[in-house]
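One-letter codes give the sequence; the integers encode the fold. A sample entry reads:
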Amino acid sequence: MSADILIIGIGNRYRGDDALGCLMADKIRAQVPADIEVIEHDGEPASLIDLWKDRKSVILIDAVSSGASAGTIHHIDLQTQALPDSFRSYSTHAFGIAEAVELARALDKLPPEIIFYGVEGKSFSADIQLSTPLQKAAQELRQQVLDKIGKEKKNA
């Protein structure tokens, strides 16, 4: 049986700020109870939909490039709204998260709760380091996700 709560860190560890989701998965995994599943994923849509099947709550974490200032944290409830079009114009994942969510929505396969945390990236070139704005934002984001999980566990 799969965990009710799933956290998916999306990205590529070798593309600068695109590594954010992967690195956040590492940090969060070390701080949550064993009944919460935390994984790293490359963002491939069909497998994302399979991963969140039968989950009550899913949190997606990824770096984005929508034109906002580097380090800006976007928080979107995907049950009530789609990812903005500006998030679709750039993706290191080609056919990505926005398309996976909308396909799942059309097929009635979204989990009851699905939250997206996107952090505005600065550099997506070949590198293994996050830019300074993302390093700072990652600390705040980690706390936001842990707070969210704490509230969900309390209300369960």
Observations:
- The radius of gyration is 14 Å.
- Residues 78 and 148 are 15 Å apart (CA to CA).
- The beta strands are 5-10, 36-41, 57-64, 73-77, 113-120.
